[in-house]
């Protein structure tokens, strides 16, 4: 898939070794909003983590972009959320398939 940032390695959320996708800690949809442009540098807005597709999808199912950008914009904050951690634990128990 051209254009996508995809790697292979260990997901920092579920600990599986698998293909990883890039998750913007502040969703790209929010980068143009005044609040984010004013409070974050371009480098900060583009920071992210490489995570597996199942964890990535789960994060976006649990919370909308505003919640992710405001409340869960670091790996540490993501790992402190009980609902997300339950999802990551479930993902960690899944067999690896092509995702």
Task: Give your account of this protein's structure.
- By secondary structure, the chain is of the alpha+beta class.
- The protein has one domain.
- It is built from 6 helices and 3 strands, in the order ββααβαααα.
- Strand 1 and strand 2 form a beta hairpin.
- Helix 3 runs antiparallel to helix 6.
- The model has no long low-confidence stretch (mean pLDDT 91).
- 26% of the residues are buried.
- Helix content is 44%, strand content 18%.
- It is globular, with a radius of gyration of 14 Å.
Question: Which terms would index this structure?
Answer:
single chain; 99 residues; alpha+beta; three-stranded antiparallel sheet; 6 helices; globular
End-to-end Cα distance, whole Å, is: 13 Å
User: Secondary-structure element sequence?
Assistant: EEHHEHHHH
* Poorly predicted spans: none
Helix content class? 40-55%
Gyration radius (Cα, Å) is 14 Å
Task: Give the averaged pLDDT, no decimals.
Answer: 91
* Strand content bin: 15-25%
Report strand order across the widest sheet: 1-2-3
Number of strands: 3
Q: Note the main sheet.
A: 3 strands, antiparallel
What's the number of domains?
Answer: 1
